[in-house]
Specification:
Layout lengths: L1 E2 L10 E4 L2 E8 L23 E2 L1 E5 L15 E2 L4
Antiparallel strand pairs: 1-4, 2-3, 2-6, 3-5
C-alpha cells in the first residue's frame, strides 16, 4: 500500500525501495471508486493524500514487509 503518490504507477515499472529494485506486477483498485490511485476525502470529510496499492516482484535481496513501512518508493529507470 502506497500513500502520497505522485504520478501513476503502471505494470512493468521498475521501482527502488530500501536499496532493492523491484518490478510492479499488478495494480490494486480502490473498492469505492475503482481507481488505481485515489484521492477521495477520508470518512471525516478531510482531504487525504493520494493512495493506492501495488504488487511487486523483488529482483534481488530479501525484504521484511514491516521494515518497508514509511519508506520512500520511486520509479527507477534501468538502462
Amino acid at each position: 500500500m502506497l500513500t502520497h503518490i505522485e504520478g501513476l504507477p503502471v505494470v512493468g515499472m521498475t521501482i527502488y525501495v530500501a536499496g532493492v529494485f523491484g518490478t510492479i506486477k499488478e495494480l490494486g483498485r480502490n473498492s469505492t471508486d475503482r481507481q488505481v490511485v485515489s484521492s477521495r476525502d477520508c470518512l471525516t470529510g478531510r482531504p487525504c493524500a493520494s493512495y493506492g496499492s501495488i504488487l511487486v516482484e523483488w529482483n534481488e535481496g530479501k525484504l521484511v514487509p514491516k521494515d518497508l513501512c514509511q519508506m520512500w518508493v520511486q520509479e527507477e529507470v534501468v538502462n
